Amino acid sequence: MSLVLGRHLFLASRPSLNALPAAGYSFLKSNSFQSSQRTIVTRSPKMAETLFEDLMLITSGANFAIGSPPLEILETCPKIVSEAMQTRLSRPNATKLFQYGPYAGDPAFRRQLGSFLSKRYGQPVTADSLAVTGGATAGLSMLCSTFFNKGDVIFVEDLSYFLALTYFQRDCGFKVVPIATDDDGVIPEAMERAVTSHTGEFRGVSESHPFSGAMYLMPTFHNPTGRCLAPSRCARVVEIARRHNLLVVCDDVYNLLPVSVDGKDPDPISPPRLISYDDMADPSTQGNIVSNGTFSKIFGPGVRLGWIEAPPRVIQAFRKSGFHQSGGAPQHLVAGMMSVILESGQQTELLNVSRKGLEERATAICQALDRCLPPGCSYKKPLGGYFLWIEFPEAIDGVELAKELQKHNITLQPGVRFSIANKYKNCVRLSFSFSPSDVLVAGVETMCEVVREMLQAK
User: For residues 365 and 444, is the Cβ–Cβ distance under 8 A?
Assistant: First the structure.
């Protein structure tokens, strides 16, 4: 799915917006889509230079909506990329980077990536288990197009990343089934019930389509809640997936970004990934879990580079796909460049700086929430990633709060957008990755004041 298309569809689905492609967006002056009175907001004559500019998501106030690295990280990338590209192109086999890449991707890159991930995860990751992608969204698309068809069943957490839900429903035509969650992640008993009740809708398996259905999870530093799947549940989730022949796609894009709010833990670590529970030494399994990663959150989204870590049958299926047989692995030149960045240790250095910046922002936003959040509201301090989740009293509607905050040039994501079951209307997601700490704090103070006014008006 085109991420730009996904954002357009998201805006088009907002109750206060009418999408006008190539023109802008129409803000409805009433809650009725039948209203004939509209105020047209057109794009600037200057062409947008980033996705967020194109979708008018850049504000002068706190931006709690954008899940992107901050500008101070992106500003370091040009020099790193320039030096790495010069180094890679000076090597004897540089010409091969301009040819179609091998099915799984540049071998030097996969070796360096495997070494980097092994050190960061504290678990072995081999080059043979990795396939190069054009980022996490592209990796998700590769998996869906290789193994599934329109009408297939996919299980998701309720809550889940809203643009993934858009992709599954609108682009793929999947039947999306929500599974209940709590503070420890997806509930295995709810997963068992949901899967069992839909087994009659699974299609038969074949060599080219070996899985009966799919499940999409974000086990570590979940988007939107920031929680982690409890270790006590991981083995149970894998067992259910194996027994029902499901492919579980783990959106592991934040795993390398643990943080310690208030600096209480000098060296926070991420929990073991779900794929580590899918023991390939077990002769009874061929592997049901894949880990979908990206450089978008740890380097820069513009490189459009990621990876899938998967069992052999998944890697081999990519080799046989029309996509890979036609063009090989995507981003061959960029992968060659990134292999130098990994080899030099610059990615590790940048990741450490990123984590420090995230910790500072997370600490600042949590201290502001502790100080300003009205009674009856709650949140949990994040352990990593980009986001935290706030639950307000039932009287607060997240969509209405977002509209009020737009008047103060503050953006956030209402909780209902992350629920396929249309729940969590009194919740919101805040991103602390993008805006500077002082801007985040000012935004929290304003948000809390607006919430107080809304509660008093009820």
Answer: yes
Contact by Cβ (8 Å): 444, 369:
yes
In the predicted model, what is the mean pLDDT of residues 59-81? 93
For residue 89, what are its two tokens?
């192109």
Instruction: Please state the rounded mean pLDDT for residues 358-378.
Output: 97
Name residue 176's beta-bridge partners.
154
- The token pair at 213 is 């259905």
Coil, helix or strand for 419?
coil
pTM: 0.88
What distance in Å separates the CA atoms of residue 411 and residue 270, rounded to the nearest whole number?
29
Nearest to 208 by CA among 139, 149, 141: 149
User: What is the DSSP secondary structure assignment for residue 422, as one 8-state letter?
Assistant: S
CA dist., res. 272 & res. 242, Å (int)? 19
What are the C-alpha distances in Å from 259 to residues 300, 385, 391, 399, 441?
19, 8, 22, 29, 18
Contact (Cβ atoms closer than 8 angstroms) between residue 27 and residue 403: no
Rounded to 10 deg, the angle between the 188-197 and 231-243 helix axes is: 20
Q: What are phi and psi for residue 212, nearest 5 degrees?
A: -75, -30
Give the single-character DSSP code of 29: S
DSSP 8-state code for residue 102: P
The full length of the chain comes to 458
Chain centroid to CA 105 = 22
3-class state of residue 202 by DSSP:
coil
DSSP 8-state secondary structure symbol assigned to residue 31: S
Residue 17 has pLDDT above 50, yes or no: no
